[in-house]
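Thread: zinc ion complex, take 2
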Amino acid sequence: MAISEEQVRHVALLARLALTDEQVANLGDELNSILGHIDTIQNLDLEGVEPTAHPLETVNSIRSDVVKPCLSRELALKNAPDTDGTAFVIPQIVGPGGGDA
Amino acid sequence: MSEFDVSRLTGAHIREGVVTGQFTAREVAEATLARVEALEPTVHAFNQVTPELALEAADAVDSSRAQAIADGLDPRDVLGALAGVPAGIKDNMNLVGTRTTCSAKILENYESVYDCTAVRRLLDAGAVPIGKCNMDEFAFGSSTENSAFGPTHNPWDLERVPGGSSGGSAACVSASMATISLGSDTGGSIRQPGALTGTVAVKPTYGRVSRYGCVAFGSSLDQIGPFARTVEDSAAALAAIAGADPMDATSAQQAVPNYVRAAAEGATGGAKGLRVGIVTDLLQADGCSGEVRAAVENAARIYADLGAEVGEVTLPASAHGLSAYYIIGPAEASSNLARFDGIRYGHRVEDPTDVLDLYMRSRAEGFGPESIRRIMLGTYALSAGYYEAYYGQAQKARTLIKQDFESAFKDFDVLLTPTSPTVAFKIGEKSADPLEMYLSDVYTIPVNLAGIPAISVPAGLCPSSGLPIGLQIMADYFAEETMFMAAAAFEAAIEFDARPPLRYESARGTRAAQEERR
Amino acid sequence: MAKDRLAQVLEDWEAVIGLEIHTEITSSNTKMFCGCPVGFGGEPNTRVCPVCLGLPGALPVPNEYAVEATVLAGLAIESTIARWSQFHRKNYFYPDMPKDYQISQYDLPFCDGGHLDVQVGEGDGAYETRICVTRIHLEEDTGKMVHVGGAEGRIAGATHSLVDFNRAGTPLMELVTEPDIRTPEEARRFAQKLRLIWLSLGISDCSMEEGSMRVDANVSIRRPGETELGTKAEIKNMNSFRALHDGLAHEIIRQAELVESGGHVVQETRHWDVGAKRTSSLRSKEEAHDYRYFPEPDMVPFQFSEEWIEAVRAKLPELPDAKKARFVEDLGLSGYDAAILSADISLSAFFDSAMSIGGAAKAKAIANIMLNDLAAYLNTEAISIDESRVTPAMLVELVELVDGGTISSKQAKVVFSEMAATGDSPGAIVEIKGMKQVSDTGAIEQAIDRVMTANPSEVEGYRGGKTTLLGFFVGQTMKEMRGQANPKLVNEVLLRKLG
Ligand SMILES: [Mg+2]
Ligand SMILES: [Zn+2]
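Output below.
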């Protein structure tokens, strides 16, 4: 399953990576080389095999509904690239995405 | 100040010396820091050395000993199992007071605001934090060349890689710039550098050690584990960090057995009755060097000599391990690394025009080439239309790999393979072709996919290169005791105590020079 | 206007509506995957921790209470509870999402199916319709953004935004209906009834204003009799039941007029602008959604046993429909009164509390005071029943005073006002104000004698056939007795003495 340049660009948008044309070309080659190796997995007859999402077969790992201390706001904002002292500051939002909760 | 060579002291020695007052934890810390100062410029095992934290921790150990004596208590009962033991910490684990960079430009200035559970437990047991260890960026790699802050050099040959991704953690223990260290292992990232640096390296059962606070790569594959120069020290370190953690829903509830006692039993009791399976199909695989293969075959003979029942076994589904791993790992990673977006922390591009531009350019600038490659691969594998063909198939292949191990462990207590198909390779040798690098992990990857524990122990030096070879010993789920027992028996039998032929000024000389500068 | 236009449009078109209702589990102490407290407001970024800020290395651990609350919600609407379920990651970038993926559920939600029967309209046109529920799943809420520099805090035209993660990670139930809804009114009734059920379960405060209950709708139109679905638009930002109704009505009209004038509906997200009374397209070019769902590897699956599900079912309280039926059948209330009382959690709880104190025999009298005097009082004061000083026991006592003949029902109104204002008990008010009704015939006769003596001409007039003067005598007698005479007895004695 070879990946086209157009697909590379689409995947880069999904992953939010601004790639140069050179990167797009190189990544296309590299991904195709890796996929060439990985693609063997598609030919395996795995009909009826249950998928393993997790190595251990444990279930119901939960936490009781008890409040714990929060971070101070100072620590919460400590690594923020831009802040007004109370919140994270971001530039304007245009274009697609969001609000799907 | 007493003079001693920290490179000849195990963690067990250090604790004993500190407990009995033979030397202080501060003396050990200072000697270690002096060694770091001397060797670090050539090895580059650390992204950050933390002398203040180290001396503070060492002083805390010394004062709790003094307090114990004042209270009429035996310091042996009061001090932690790792009291005074210098430790390196992979730079993907959070520790307040340090930066946690994952060797990535995007996190270059990231300061931890909370502690990783495993690190906290290690320090609570009295370990002394020497620094944050270099690694492949976000743990993507097998050579520590993919570090935004430059490669780590193998102490056995500075032209060669220490393996990776936990290359800094392996190199600092190998070069005795720390006595133990923590690494993380997603597809071999503890064991493979362990093999390439002649250290003991443990990947515990998935869930045995909490992952809380360790920056995630492949959440269903990642495990934190220790490096040490002896099996006993690695057992003590794992005992300190293992156990359930309410902050990690995937951490296992099982009680933690006495790993140190298991190692001691192995060291003294040999391997009588131990059922050892040599994994023949993996051993015969292409790409495995003859000398590595010979070392593993030799290990099997040693086990037989020690009274083990040695047999042969195959793990046919492991042939698909690499494919499954390079789908599942990047898929999970692509999602785990989404959060590095320049909004709450990390690199943000200058003058973004809008949020989309901020995301696109901050991430493109902040991630190195291998991170970008894996994010792209994982995003593609999960994207619409490809999920079943890639991720779905990989998960099913994972089931087969798991089943292979389950059936092998009906007949055997431990399984043997090489840890790495080759000894340490030259810096730059495999960086041109990513696929070539990926093949370094063919023996270690199936272990992560299945979730079982495995250890790499030195199996001698390669006759032609003089570089260490690692033996991988795998055990059943939560059978770390058996694993340590088997490893300690082997370690005792081969009496490996070679040290890297590093040339450095003596710790004393460096310290004198340092004092002169003041 | 829109209403008539809608009726017109719905003669030629059938609307097909499905709802997506997000409800925050505000009754939870903590967030979905961390120990931070759940709550509306708070100084920005003060209810956050490494987990809900998505800091590197932090891991989610699911909140037991939120899982149980979601299962309880499912049981209340007759969903099938999954025996095996898990969380998935929904991957997309947005600044209010700390991890740039939302932990949600995909093909294995906690609750599958379910339905609500909804009464629509009043009187002759009333009908009941069943609206099927596709699923209820559990997920985490996002943070909040304040857009700065534009008009009215809107995203359009803003120069920058401030992000606050206090809300991020709040447990959020998402209910999705089948496209079974045909009119804006059905949609409103469904949402109102669902809200009432969630309130009965005590899992959320369901405030549409504060956003703890958010209703989005998918709308398409087709000609009556058609079975294919038309292209749908998704409508957001309908922040009240009225907005839900009006937003849908305008969208249906918009789509019909668009198609009738030769255009066609495009699949997009539209924003209800309550001020402009129209929906507008939210995004010019819709990014093809590719959420790359995969099983959340930081958590393990859920396996719900039959016993556990039954134990949760045992916690189901009486639901609004059952409550209404009980008010009618067991307590003899009219259907109308029962509907009003059962449609309000606080009112029905107050009523039930009064019943347990005073007994079923007082049901009608209590309901009467509640739906008249109390309702009027609460309305005037603009407070809720929980904020008022009136208690169920006070209402029972008031009814007992009337039933026992101590005060008249007219006096009862005075006592009610007094007790609502002061919080004093009715007995005390009657005592302090000396309002006790005099039923002593002797005292009444003496008073009437005094009145007749003082007004001989009126007595003569009455006896001469001017019987309308009876009111005058009643008034004079009551005045003589400072309003405390039993009016029934006054009447009787007057008729006897004057006759
Ligand atoms: Mg949702
Ligand atoms: Zn939190």
